[in-house]
Each structure stands twice: as structure tokens, then as C-alpha cells.
Write a structure and sequence with these properties.
Layout lengths: L1 E5 L3 H13 L6 E5 L2 H8 L8 E4 L8 H9 L10 E5 L4 H10 L3 E4 L4 H8 L5
Parallel strand pairs: 1-2, 1-3, 3-4, 4-5
Helix pairs in contact: 2-3
The structure holds magnesium ion.
């Protein structure tokens, strides 16, 4: 199981990574990207095969919503990867916009390992 965490805060990427480990998921590798464009670069790179993407919403250069749209419009290698939004944006219209773009789940900050289990369990092997 490989997971890509996309967030412009390196501290938040570490918090998310720690949460995943505390949730007892069997994770072989965690990849990180600092915005949507970097996330696309990782996914389209030679070592970019991942099983799950966790993405922030607000990021410079390319935000989370645009990132989702690009992944879903991307190559067959990447366009079906589950994407969960990890965000403070709990507004219903934002959630709907993310879902319409192809998001598969939502995790609100701050989160607990149990919350990660509940939202992400179905995507984890
Ligand atoms: Mg952010």
C-alpha cells in the first residue's frame, strides 16, 4: 500500500502520515507533495503508483479541487485512484464541489486515527 499526501504544510503532511500509521493501516510507503501540481508530477512520474491520495484543499500553485479534476482527467494509470480530502473546509457546497469533481471521502481537521479508519478503511487493503 502506497499513499500520496498532498498538502502545502510540511507539518500537516507529517501529522497526516502519523495519523495513518496510528490507524494501523498497512502502509509500505508514504509519498509527499506540496501542492496539486507537485502531486500530479509525482503521480505521472516513474515511481508514482499509489493506492490512495489524501489532499488538502487550500494550496498555492494548484489547489485541491483543481488537483482532483486533473487526476480524474488524467491517464488510465491514475484517474481511478481514490482521493480523500483532508481539510478544514467543511462547508457543504465545498464538499459537494469536491464530490462532483471525483473526491471519494472527506476528513476534517483536526482528526483522530479512528476518524481516518472510518473514512479510509474501505480504500485500504
Ligand atoms: Mg493548505
Amino acid at each position: 500500500m502506497r499513499v500520496l499526501i498532498v498538502d502545502d504544510s510540511s507539518v500537516m503532511r507529517k501529522i497526516v502520515a502519523r495519523g495513518l500509521r496510528q490507524a494501523d493501516f498497512q502502509i509500505d510507503e508514504i509519498l509527499e507533495a506540496g501542492n496539486g501540481q507537485e502531486g500530479l508530477d509525482v503521480l505521472n512520474g516513474p515511481n508514482g503508483k499509489v493506492d490512495l491520495i489524501l489532499s488538502d484543499w487550500n494550496m498555492p500553485i494548484m489547489d485541491g479541487l483543481t488537483f482532483i479534476k486533473n487526476v480524474r482527467g488524467g491517464s488510465p494509470d491514475i484517474n481511478k485512484i481514490p482521493i480523500a480530502m483532508v481539510t478544514t473546509e467543511g462547508g457543504e457546497s465545498k464538499v459537494e464541489a469536491a464530490d462532483a469533481a471525483g473526491a471519494n471521502g472527506h476528513i476534517k481537521k483536526p482528526f483522530t486515527p479512528d476518524m481516518l479508519k472510518e473514512v479510509l478503511g474501505k480504500f485500504m487493503k
